[in-house]
Amino acid sequence: MKFPIAIEPATDSTAWGVVVPDLPGCFSAGDSTEDAAINAVEAIELHCEALVEDGVEIPVPRPLAEWQADPEFAGWMWALVDVDVSHFESGAEPVNITLPRWLVAEIDAHAKVRGVTRADFLADAARAALR
Description:
Layout: E1 2-8, E2 16-19, E3 27-30, H1 33-53, H2 64-68, E4 77-82, H3 101-114, H4 118-130
Antiparallel strand pairs: 1-2, 1-4, 2-3
């Protein structure tokens, strides 16, 4: 799943700060923007693990453009970080569905561009439709 992260520029006395707007309370920091993004992935993984342990579903990230338009984050930099949350989700169940061949080809093309499997793509699309 790709999560937008808001990166607050460092100052002489602070590191680069990171907030994950789709996961309230999930934040991190780093000595560089690269470190901040790497640390954000770890923070997201830990946050998602805690959500699942508490019986809370991992939210589907909102589109980056929606967060960029939020005045709360004016002046912040943005990035997308890819986090595999599938190992936090239990009770996977195989599903046999029939779709038109052209639709399967479109799904596979979109999944490939995003670097995910067909199943991950369909699960993300279902989560987005259900929110």
